[in-house]
Amino acid sequence: MSAAEKYTVEKITEIQRWAPNLFSFKTTRHPGYRFVPGQFARLGVRKDDAIVWRAYSIASANWEDHLEFYSIVVPNGEFTTELAKLQEGDELFVEKTNYGFLTTDRFECGRDLWMLSTGTGLAPFISILYDFDTWEQYERIVLVHSVREAHELTYQEEIRSFGWNELFAEHAHKLEYVQVVTREAVDGALGARITELLASGELEAHVGLPISVEHSRVMICGNPDMVEETRKLLTTRGLTVAKRGKPGNLAVENYW
Which domains does the chain have, with CATH numbers? Predict the structure, then answer.
């Protein structure tokens, strides 16, 4: 397969610096690029005479004319070090194929949608929240974002904007946004890891909604250890991972 068949060359159109080690960026989007909210793209940056590739969940809506991604800068990281150097107008490569199964179409029925994230694992859930079908399908939507320090609570305004955005206002009452900060005390935020909050029942008590096999559909994205621990914890309560042709209650994605 030739390079032209494998990927497109896009340009960075906007960069948002959230913190010294956190940023999001938008790129142009090829008209032929399609994805399902929750999926990820493979991005390439040029390093010396080669292209280095990494997977990044898409944060933008599938109906927007741009793509958006959310990144942490890994010290001395082969990919993110180069990515962080890029400026508006610089080129980035995007594989034409989309990937991943962290999508709501993995589920059948269900009344409550839980989205559990750590760090930059928030990205696919932003895209899913921009999907109108998500709001129509579920009665309650719980978005949990766990970080170490308060300055890592990104996308707050965008998440809260669903309450007044005329496109979503009819269903905005369904959303419960839960902030978790584990290394400092923050008013209104929970203070323990997601796995601890689930094991103790504090998360469900805080939301006022139990996680059950019958009603709950749970999506998990972020640190691989958190994803695996949370999956194990919930499977002991009877929830099962959704697979192709075999609907379940859980959908997971290791974000790095």
Answer: 3-95 (2.40.30.10), 104-254 (3.40.50.80)
